[in-house]
Amino acid sequence: MITIKNLSKTIRGNKIIDNLNLKLKGITGIIGPNGAGKSTLMKIIASVEKGDKGSEIIFNNTSNEPIRIGYLPQNFSIYPNLTVYEVLKLLATLKGNFDSAHIEYLIELFNLANYKNKKMKELSGGTHRRVGIAQALLNKPNYLIIDEPTAGLDIIECIKLRNILLTISEKVEDIIISSHLPEDIEYICNHIVVIEKGQKRFEGSLSEMIQRSENLSYEATIELNDLQKLNVIGEIVKIDKISDKLVKVKFITRKPIADHQLYKPVQPGFLGSYVSLLKGEVVP
Ligand SMILES: Nc1ncnc2c1ncn2[C@@H]1O[C@H](COP(=O)(O)OP(=O)(O)OP(=O)(O)O)[C@@H](O)[C@H]1O
């Protein structure tokens, strides 16, 4: 578990992180809108940056192993003219942990065998991201910090990477993933932190998060032309097209809904709960 106490970060007079207190355990997903402070928080946990005076990050290591942190920054673009193998070898050496068998294991785990001799600048976004996570595992970390694992990836690459992260989770004490994609968090994480404007809006399990916004979520089948009217009643979180004119819409609202023939109460799901939290519909 990683305990974060009174963490603040001020950059040029702006409070980017505002007194965060968190207990991160298992696979934690940090989610929030653009500019919420996720990357800044990840950098501080990875010890790349420091919090303001009085901020504490405590690694509650359950084993006798020394603390080793693996980190994938949001923008991982290094050594464009080196091959995948050369990058892994170089970074392992720099981390003081060159082990060719482990590099081969990571190449296999991340399905990189066909790219071993390709230059970094020749890789697709998905392959690049896989190399990024592989390099974060070079020092056999017990804490893994991955900033936006699926940034810019297509849906198939996203699914592959999520599966790999689940596989890795058995080998490390804690994984912390930040994302602005609800799917990343919903499918991988057992502990969720929602931050906005550097402040905590929620911390807990998926079921606890969903519980917070129960009785706020509804579904209705309406004419496409009526979508704007629904926008006045609540916040639309999902639209499924039924025909050229009809759509099934899921929305959240705190306003009392009388017509339960038209508007049926439904489970909010992760996305509904997340939007409720950001819209201040539920009390954190
Ligand atoms: N070095 C810096 N100097 C000035 N402002 C910064 C710096 N680093 C971050 N910020 C500001 O802090 C805020 C939070 O940035 P951060 O990158 O941590 O957010 P984020 O939640 O990761 O956003 P995104 O999802 O867009 O990546 C933003 O308003 C950003 O402009």
Automatic annotation (TrEMBL):
GO terms for molecular function: ATP binding; ATP hydrolysis activity. Pfam families: ABC_tran. The keyword RNA-binding does not apply. InterPro entries: AAA+_ATPase, ABC_transporter-like_ATP-bd, P-loop_NTPase. Coiled coil: none annotated. Residues 2-222 form the ABC transporter domain. The keyword DNA damage does not apply. It comes from the Bacteria. Keywords: ATP-binding, Nucleotide-binding, Transport. Belongs to the ABC transporter superfamily. This is ABC-2 type transport system ATP-binding protein. It comes from [Anoxybacillus] calidus.
